[in-house]
């Protein structure tokens, strides 16, 4: 606790500031901001940016420092229905933009608060923002806050008035909670030596109430535990809200029980449970009373969650279908939707017709209407579930008055409605008199709709920037009538335009009858500004006069005209002005890699005038915004096999144009055509049914993003070959052929099947010691033919290659070590004249390899009888990592041809070379690296032979020596027996 002297000094300074000059009051009264209903509850957290609360009250964390606070208590089964972030601080210049969870968050215009109550620049601010999306994805957890800039110097520091921090409120729905209405009040009100009373409503406690409970919470700023005079209180229905952190008389004490923080300097975020008798069955009103003594307190929010009877939020909308023409009927469409949470049974619409409209009928599935004077009551007995709508009600009235008429209606139900702001709707129109706009010249004396009347009051849609003739037709009794049968008649008229959808203009003026119209009246309102007067001449005997309309923007608009002489106003039927043309442009490089993003811009244009063509800036600003569809694509070359769709999207539209990033996962050249995307997927602007011109843009050439190489190894790795796990895809002998498949891919690794023919390029293969490596094996060479462009089909080509190590086995120098095993990874790259496509690419090369080993065919020595066949086992061997020869147990493809046997160095009896042979004489394939033959002599001669069997070049033969005429003891025994 500070000393009494310190308290007194601070009090005197605050009083001096309060009395100096005239204090400007800019506080925003606390008002009901939002309401929720259902099985709802809330949790919250807060964090201050003040560092201490003792001798360094003015020290704060800067805007770059991350402040953290945890949200806990949201049940796993709960649905988050609202999350609101509050922040506040001491500053003359308010900071309404901060950073939450790493993203920029700005307070909406109606949630930016500022208090200058004390005066003399002793000002405070507060901001609030909806962060439901961010909190829905994270739920319980630690949240980060930063970017808040406050003033901690003069005048705040001297009076211990520095404050700043964040508060996060999370509202959720869960079946474990009582049925409640949660009302969120918001504003920014100062109190000191005074209090604030909030009179609460918008709830209805059940009767009987049972043992259910409610909750009351507040978010306040600048409270200080040291400044108390037993006068800081929060009372609900007269009962003090207290707990261990907030004793009686010290409610605003920089302690927040919402997250158990007793050091929330400058912040009080507290919540209390309330039950009977503080709240009573059947209550519909309550009050909260905030009181502060010496301490300056700023109230930002109050959250009240009270037990409630079942509630349904009914919403009403109204649309005027017809123009208001004297003596004719006008229809209104009324739509009722239940926004929940409970099912409503039996809504009622009460429509109050203005003077000038008389009730004719009400119709719609399930609707029943009665009228009493100007009040029409329509009911529907159907149940409306949450999220559902009733069938539309069509109310028809006869136009009997003139001027601007507004029809008002409200909806009510049997259940409690906790959101009243959407219960009312209205539609306004101006009664047209004596003249109308028509699409053609009208026949005098023929009623609208008659078989011989060629005109209507409904204009067809108009292309932006295109001249359109819209006639002005004069009437009598609602029937087109010539002005004069004797001479031409001059009529002076003024014109105006109203924007219905989009509801606002974008700075573009329309032209009608040769005069520029004022910028359109917004929101479909009747215009108050008119063009200059224009005198039109109506030919004798004619009921109509032609005038040209041109508008270089888009939207649903409505023409008005006013007779200069009488002031009578006529209202045209709304019509759509649609884009004359949608064009695409792109600034990508001449070569685009398949699957990589490239930019394109779509623009909605008005018709070109001369060499100038203007964008239509209102495109994309509609009530339900129109947007650009992802362009459709077709192949520009019939030789292209694949034609996948374009991927990507356009960004938000600005001034009628939008850029976006797109990618195409194939190779070739495409023609891209833009389109319009809207809620009904009609592909026409505002569903007007008229086709907009869409230009076609040729894009590309697209090339592969990268190659991949895949090897087909002749054999699997053996244990002592030195293979690195699964890195090598098998093994081959030095100089043994193996298959390599080169495949062209997009960035997403899909095969670019169009990489063939004119879109393929000659591609060379090279070998490296590792995938993506930059070093080759010393002395080794790859024998690989150039892959021609014509070799590629459907994006791939296969070729047989071999890899030769520097030193091979030579039988004449059997003890000379051959080259040790090496890994060879195959790289594909387009050659001269190519586009630089390669298998060595980021983020990782796609280059397969195999282990290359030195091999030989072991021909063993042997001896035996000259009269018997001598068994011979041949074995393929590889030079192991241990520098020994090991039988290649994984070789099942190499062959041995006995016809390639070479017998040399004959010693003993001189006989022809062909006296000895291998049997059988047919070629054999190794199994597990070995195969067997029999050596046979055609004549029983005694002597020695050297055998070489060089068949496969990757298995050079050892020299085997065989001696015939040697008898083993069993043979000698048999001979002597005979």
UniProtKB/TrEMBL annotation:
Ranges where the DUF11 domain occurs: 313-428
Residue ranges constituting the DUF6701 domain according to the UniProt record: 461-976
Cited InterPro entries: DUF11_rpt, DUF6701, OmcB-like_DUF11
Any Pfam family matching the protein: DUF11
Signal peptide coordinates: 1-26
Domain of life assignment: Bacteria
Keyword tags: Signal
Protein name, UniProt field: DUF11 domain-containing protein
Species name: Massilia cavernae
